[in-house]
Amino acid sequence: MRRYIPKDIEPKWQNKWAQDQIYKAVDFDDKAKFVMLTEFPYPSGDGLHLGHTREYTLGDIIARHKRMQGMNVLYPMGYDAFGLPAENYAIKNNIAPQLATDENIAKFQKQFDSLGYSIDWSRSFKTTDPDYYKWTQWLFLQFFKAGLAYQKEISINWCPFCKTGLANEEVINGRHERCDTLVEKRLLKQWLLEITKYADRLIDGLSDVDFPSKIADQQINWIGRSVGAEISFKVADSDKIIEVFTTRTDTLFGVTFMALAPENPLVEIITTEEHRANVNSYVVASQAKSEIERQDVNRDKSGAFTGAYAINPLNNQPIPIWVADYVLSNYGTGAIMAVPAHDQRDFDFANNFNLPILRVVKNQEKDEDHTEDEGVLVNSGVYNGLPSQEARETILKDLIKTKQATEKVNYRLRDWIFSRQHYWGEPIPIIHCPEHGAVAVPDDQLPVVLPEVERYQPAEDGESPLASVESWINTHCPVCDQPAVRETDTMPNWAGSSWYYLRYFDPKNTEAFADRSKLDYWKNVDLYLGGMEHTTLHLLYSRFWHQFLYDQGLVPTPEPYMARRGQGIVLGADGAKMSKSKGNVVNPTEIIDNGYGADALRLAVVFLAPYDQTTIWSPESVAGTYRFLQRVWTLTHEFEDHKGNSKELESLEINRATHQVIKRVSEDLSTLDFNTPIAALMEYVNTLYKLKVKDEFASQSWPTAIEALIQLLAPFAPHIAEELWEVSGHEDSVHLSQWPKWDDKYLISDTARIVVQVNGKVRAELVVGVDSTEEDVVKAARDDQKIKAYLEGKEIKRVILVPNKLLNLVVG
RNA sequence: GGGCGGGUGGCGGAAUCGGUAGACGCGCUGGACUCAAAAUCCAGUGUUGGCAACAACAUGAGGGUUCAAGUCCCUCCCCGCCCACCA
User: Fold this and answer.
1) Cβ distance A548 to A416 under 8 Å?
2) Which one-letter DSSP state was computed for residue A444?
3) Stated pTM of the model
4) What is the rounded distance in angstroms from the CA atom of residue A489 to the CA atom of residue A422?
């Protein structure tokens, strides 16, 4: 018998599949379509890592399974190639990022090929292709034309290491998520996309798609919709008004001070001469603090009194106005009404500065200094006695009547800062004309191709490297043809990935980002698998783009992804995140080349744990899955050698095992369980090993049993399955064969094993006829030697029978 | 502080509706084969007591509901992820 040597069969089949193009997705096919999407990789110099392998293997298993179920499957792959690592590499080695990127992609491609994925490579592209980013630019212009892309001078998060502005979502704990550098604030003119306009849609749309609650909740929290009121407070002895946002109008009588953010322009205006010096030095000190200092929750609350007072609109009491840097300038109005008795932060501040604390909500709990819980109003004039929730509405209504408040919804979500001061990104296709301002580059001049430059390093002052390319910058206004200059900022690395799935539907189109009829056929992604870390970045951004495109009538569905699943991270064997510095990185190519092969590796990364769970890599697991494949190999070959034997009747045992495993694998795959079907297949093979000793492959049930085994294994381990399929005499690919079906009639037995409990403890196991009556089962139990001993001298008080499963005798 | 997960053998993990806890794999132990080793095959493997049959205990801790709890309820502890001075 030939031995199982993966490297003898895997490249052979990979070539054959490529040659026969068996994984090609067909536009407009009559079969039902299924779009299986996994996040495309950034082609770094390190190549595919184990996390990629897990993600793409999972996608491949689903794609292959759906294909065998008769669907027209599109499983595409591309490269998200704009981004900082390539640029940093370019800066360091003075090599064009284009070249480094192409080298890396070649490396990735080789690894991809060695893993045997059923990807339709004819649809592949990279986001850095001018043919691709032409359409990224065109789509940006649709936002611009709809008024959703705008320029504004704002204080932004600035990474001093990368020398670029960052979106809110890219700052983690005051540091740039990519390089871990402390972020600074800088005032810069930036392009923004008005994602806040879609805040409600992004929340509401979640109810039409199948996202795990973990992901949906995270997006909802990130958007942070908060319903409340904007209330106007007059400043005493002044015509100025302070607007504040609050969700607790019911606590209005408990306001004992107001607080303005240091950046609030009113600070300058209302501060009295007496307090000016003090307030100024406080504001300067606050602004000198780093982001991380200002965001530290545990820090003592600081502030300064402005000398001014506001008037409470309900009782006309004067309220001192303070400046405090715990008030955020970019949320709400940059000013708050402070209710120390019912807000922890206001409470802390009041304690620091000996400001009064007035309880206006009373609740059951003992009289604490402050509570944020609901209760009944006290110290609130005519509103005393109202439940706080009701008071919230009543007071707001009254204030609206007197035009002192409006209903207001606030979001934590901020507009998406879309400018980067970098070379390696899509140029923003805008021309600045002295007369006409920002003008869109006309469609027939797209793409605005990224020019070659002398140096890739961004400038200290935040100018993009493109600013130094005179010949490129200087152009003419598309409206008036007067001299004008190009925008030099580029798009963030999230731009190209915001719509890439649509390009797979029609990757070569030069007239449109995708042909409408193809969009109508493929519609959207049926299942999208990716990392949890993209929940509030890529996944939110691309939903926003898609919803906008839907509103523009450019795509046929309101949501891009019908279902989303997030796969867990694979940690190193030491339990730490894999990283080069820790030396715990596992290279999938090494495992394949060590002789285990792609199939054993694929099984190992999937068998490890449920796909959505973070798990620790165990090097021995490949040995286990390799051993299993070897047993499948041996079994199949032994069967082939004994084929002549088959003359006996069917084996009920084999039939039952076969139909059981078909059922289990099918059902598990439909619920996206991938580790348990592999266990089921292992169990099945163990069973067949035992049964083969019995009948020497003589029963007529063997051919079906082996065939089912190979087919069920095919999505998981495509190479060995294809080889064994051929060995068993098939000429067509197993991957185009029809997924086996189980028949319940083989699963039914005429006997049932019943567990017998006495007082809830398992004491024996009985075999009785299926669907035996309670009377019969109890009788059988009474006759059982072991049970007899437990019933001795006792009376059966109660009998519980779970048909065909369990009998519990309660005795006493 | 808020949101969401989770805690089961030496390890990764199984366990529809509450119904035999520990499937499957790793590791370990013993045996077969071999001059020997590797590979392979077979058997065993939660803990405690016992030669054994068997019994008791056992799913983070404590209580409860139930004929029956890993699963449901209450109280608490611990771990992970995400967000965080968002009014």
Assistant:
1) no
2) G
3) 0.94
4) 7
- A281 Rama sector, left if φ>0, alpha if ψ -120 to 50, beta otherwise: alpha
Distance, Å, A760 CA → B55 C1': 16
d(CA A425, CA A493) in angstroms, rounded, equals: 7
Mean pLDDT calculated for residue range A655-682: 96
Work out whether strand A527-531 and strand A33-38 pair parallel, antiparallel, or are unpaired: parallel
Nearest DNA or RNA nucleotide to A414 (CA to C1'):
B86
Residue type, A83: G
Nearest-nucleotide field for A628 (CA, C1'): B25
Distance from residue A297's CA to nucleotide B75's C1', rounded to whole Å: 30
What count of residues does chain A have? 812
Nearest Cα neighbor of A560 from A489, A499, A644 is: A499
Instruction: Give the tens place of pLDDT for each residue, A476-503.
Output: 999 999 999 999 999 999 999 999 999 9
> What are the residues facing A229 on neighbouring strands?
A246, A407
CB neighbours of residue A609 within 10 Å? 16
Q: Scan for tokens 């509405």, then name that residue.
A: A393
Tokens representing A437 are: 């301002």
Which nucleotides of strand B lie under 7 Å from a protein CB?
2-5, 11-15, 19-21, 23-27, 39-43, 55-56, 67-69, 80-87
Number of helices (H), then strands (E), in chain A: 25, 29
Closest C1' nucleotide to A226's CA: B86
Q: In angstroms, what CA-CA distances link A208 with A202, A316, A464, A560, A777?
A: 11, 48, 41, 11, 50
* Reported ipTM: 0.95
Rounded, the Å distance between the CA of A634 and C1' of B35 is: 28
Count of beta carbons in the 10 Å neighbourhood of residue A381: 10
Nucleotide nearest to A668 (CA to C1'): B16
Task: Return the sign of the alpha-carbon dihedral for residues A757, A763, A769, A773.
Answer: negative
- Give the CA-to-C1' distance from A701 to B43 in angstroms: 28
